[in-house]
Amino acid sequence: MNHDHGSNSYKKNSITLGGAVAMGTGVMIGAGIFALTGQIAELAGPLFPIAFFIGAIVTGFSSYSYIKMSNSWPSAGGIGMILQKCYGPGAVAAGAALLMALSMVIAESLVARTFATYLLRPFNIGGGPLVPILSVGVILFAYLVNIAGNRSIGLFSIVMAAIKIGGIALFGIAALWSSGFSFAASSQSAGNFGATGFVASVALAVLAFKGFTTITNSGAEITDPNRNVGRAIMISIVLCVVVYLLVAFGVGSSLTIDQIIAAKDYSLAEAAKPALGQVGFLLTVLLAVVATASAVLASVFAVSRMLAMLTDMKMIPHSHFGMSGPIQRHTLVYTVVIASFLAVFLDLSRIASLGAFFYLTMDMAVQWGVWRFRRTEIGASGVVLLAALGFDAIVLVAFTALKLQSDPSIVVYAVIAIISVFLFERAYLSRWLAPQNDSARS
After folding, report:
1. What are all long-range contacts of 230-235, with beta carbons under 8 Å and residues at least 24 apart?
2. Which of 53, 273, 302, 322 is the most buried (most CB within 10 A)?
3. Strand, coil or helix: what is 222?
4. Organism's domain of life (predicted)?
């Protein structure tokens, strides 16, 4: 099946290993560090750096099936292709793929809102209409850059990834150094952070790593994809673990858990103050603004690509709404509209919760599908696949239990949204599972 469709957006061997790693870390680091550190600390308490580490282990198990599938069928179809290879082109595959796309849009609005929160920090503006206005502004900026063409995006994401990883690592080291490598957060009273809270915090930590799926979605374009897709995924996850742990310990060495929770949405900037003074605070704000803006840019590109692919694969309906030009331009508009809507109407913790529900549900569908239908063909270990599925289930159950106590309405929204997505796809595609037709798809 030809994935070109006149839009020239798929070029074989156009992304190097370094470019793929930059793309993965670019999406991950924007959301993970700036948006989620405070929220993870709120659930996990003094153990929050360990939550990042366990999140990486869970993600490592999850990524196994994506790597194995991408090695067998490197495809620009990414997750859509994996699901279709497992379940056939029916509503199960399409619904799970659409959940993935929606979780990416959610991540985009999460990062856009974080951009606004940090940008307003030096002016001591904590809320009000400016947060949603700036959030929508940065999403529109990403849209305009994406329309300008994707040649510049590869180079831009490599430069931005280098600045982000370097800058954030320096922040973590400086904060630890100035505190004499003591960890303030754990010296506070343990509070009421239970085991459920800790396991639930891993659900958000997994969100901080899910950017690796962006690499899967560019499979056919990466040089020597059968080797490099898996390598890019593993390098990205390892790089992010190092950066996240540096930051988590850096924040924990400067602030107590109560202070981290109080400054939940901008905890990095707050942690820079005692460690690095006002200049450090402003530099951290600047770094956050650059990092989140570039993450929105990478994410808008990735989501519009994925939606265009799902349209090509006849997994989602498409309406031009009177727009001209290639399909990817239309999906860019859908992406921007949905992300802007979420950024205006939901706060950071609710956006993150919704993202966790969608992503974990989709990931469980992938793990089960690969285990059930493809594991012998791709030579995958059934034990690893079932472990990944089990970890996802444990984390999802703990997260749901916690949210039912603290914010039951977001659980209701998530369940309604997930069921609606699958019913919508069932109505559109008229069957849950479809027989495989491998020869029809390359």
Report:
1. 230/67, 230/70, 230/71, 231/17, 232/17, 232/20, 232/21, 232/24, 233/24, 233/63, 233/66, 233/67, 234/60, 234/63, 234/67, 235/17, 235/21
2. 302
3. strand
4. Bacteria
Residue showing tokens 């079932």: 386
The three-point CA angle 97-95-106 to 5° equals 60
Q: Which of 405, 387, 406, 383 is nearest to 395 (CA)?
A: 387
Q: What span, in angstroms and rounded, lies between the C-alpha atoms of 317 and 430?
A: 13
Tally the residues of the chain: 442
Measured distance CA(18)–CA(426) in Å, rounded: 39
Q: Are 357 and 347 in contact, with CB atoms under 8 Å apart?
A: no
Contact predicate 255/155, CB 8 Å:
no
Backbone conformation region of residue 222, classed left if phi is above 0, alpha if psi is from -120 to 50, else beta: beta
How many Cα atoms sit within 13 Å of 17 on the Cβ side? Answer: 9
Q: Residue 91 in contact with residue 429, Cβ under 8 Å?
A: yes
Which residues, 6 or more positions from 262, have their beta carbon under 8 angstroms from its beta carbon? Answer: none
| Ranges of H-type helices in 148-266 | 151-178, 195-207, 212-216, 225-254, 257-262
Question: Under 8 Å CB-to-CB from 441, ≥6 apart: which residues?
Answer: 1, 77, 81, 84
Q: pTM for the complete prediction?
A: 0.89
Identify whether the C-beta of residue 351 lies closer than 8 Å to the C-beta of residue 110. Answer: yes
| H helix intervals, 121-150 | 130-147
Single-letter amino acid, residue 12: K
What tokens does 413 get?
Answer: 């929204």
18/215 Cα distance (integer angstroms): 11
* Per-residue pLDDT tens digits for 254-288: 888 888 888 888 888 888 888 788 888 898 899 88
Work out the number of other CB atoms within 10 angstroms of the CB of residue 151: 10
For the segment 180-238, what is each residue's pLDDT rounded down to a tens digit? 777 666 545 445 678 899 999 999 999 889 888 888 877 677 888 888 888 999 999 99
